[in-house]
Amino acid sequence: MKKIINTDQAPAPIGPYNQAVQSGHLLFTSGQIPIDPATEELVSGGIREQAIQVLENLKAVLEAAGGTLDDVLKTTVFLTDMADFPELNLLYAEYFDEDHAPARSTLQVVALPKGALVEIEAIAKI
Description:
Layout: E1 2-5, E2 20-23, E3 26-29, E4 35-36, E5 41-42, H1 47-64, E6 72-79, H2 85-95, E7 103-108, E8 118-125
Parallel strand pairs: 6-7
Antiparallel strand pairs: 1-2, 2-3, 3-8, 4-5, 6-8
């Protein structure tokens, strides 16, 4: 059976989807973009500021399901510019300890919702 996860500590979905779905011990998050949940607006700044907001939003969704970033098994990162990859890696390492970091794929895409520079989705075992 699936359980829907939503929290006001992360941005509300901007379409017909939920922030996450849990099935058994597995949690599948929707992609998080750098929207401040307090204002529902895209955060200003570059890749660092946006990636911080994305990872904070992801943390909030995981916490709503009873998990943490340590529970993440896999992430998929979408960037609008692969030139942002080195800066993203530096910040990502602040959130995920290298010895316990999840598997990850990173893709460059043409565009993201609301003009975001980065989006991250995750699969976790809670």
